[in-house]
Amino acid sequence: MSISLHINSAVRQVDADADCPLLWVLRDDLGLTGTKYGCGIAQCGACTVHLDGQPVRSCSIAVGDVGDAEIVTIEHVAGAEAQAVRDAWIAHNVPQCGYCQSGQVMTAVALLRETPHPDDAAIDAAMAGNICRCATYYRIRAAIHAAADRLPPDPLR
């Protein structure tokens, strides 16, 4: 079945079964391998992408259910929040093995877009679904705070 996807600011045609997980279409059909397979049951966060700006687990969404939603993967995430997160990740030496990092970054970027200056509780709540085998959780939290510090002040504060 031919399916049209709005992905990374382009329309891409894929030939896939409608019930195929989006993750496999991204990786196998489109070659976007930055999105990782971790658990296959939406529990680890390694496969996180943005669907209309919201972080979602691509392993648990059927490609036929995506519709006209805009998909953004780690290869194309951009903007002030994305750059601040990338810079903070490097400055705080967040990755060790690196396997979970695409999902961690995508979740952190979505958090900062929703809450530009989160406190520890907001960070912990947003990042809770992302598992890091290397347990760099304190560095992740510190990096998110550092990224938030690079963003303009929240006018509502």
Structure, briefly:
The chain has 157 residues and is α+β, with helices and mostly antiparallel strands.
Describe the 3D structure.
With 157 residues, the protein is an alpha+beta fold. The chain has 2 domains: 2-72, Beta-grasp domain (Ubiquitin-like (UB roll), Roll), CATH 3.10.20; 80-150, [2Fe-2S]-binding domain (DNA polymerase, domain 1), CATH 1.10.150.120. It is built from 5 helices and 5 strands. It has helices at 22-29, 80-91, 101-114, 120-127, 137-150; strands at 2-7, 10-15, 48-51, 54-57, 70-72. The protein has a 5-stranded mixed β-sheet with strand order 2-1-5-3-4, sandwiched between helices. Strand 3 (48-51) and strand 4 form a beta hairpin. Helix 2 packs across helix 3 (101-114), helix 2 packs across helix 5 and helix 3 (101-114) packs across helix 4. The N and C termini lie far apart (50 Å).
Question: What descriptors fit this protein?
Answer:
iron-sulfur; five-stranded mixed beta sheet; globular; DNA polymerase, domain 1; 5 helices; alpha+beta; 5 strands; 2Fe-2S-bd; 2Fe-2S; 157 residues; Ubiquitin-like (UB roll)
What is the approximate shape?
globular
Strand content: 5-15%
How many independent structural domains?
Answer: 2
The CATH class of the largest domain, by name, is Alpha Beta
Total number of helices: 5
| Average pLDDT over all residues | 96
- Radius of gyration (CA) equals 16 Å
Q: Output the strand order for the largest sheet.
A: 2-1-5-3-4
Distance between the termini: 50 Å
CATH topology of the largest domain: Ubiquitin-like (UB roll)
* Portion in helices: 25-40%
Q: Give the CATH architecture of the largest domain.
A: Roll
User: How is the quaternary structure best described?
Assistant: single chain
CATH fourth-tier homologous superfamily of the largest domain: Beta-grasp domain
Structure classification:
alpha+beta
Largest sheet: number of strands, sense, barrel closure: 5 strands, mixed
Low-confidence stretches: none
Q: Give the strand tally.
A: 5
Q: Name the helix and strand elements from N-terminus to C-terminus, one letter apiece.
A: EEHEEEHHHH
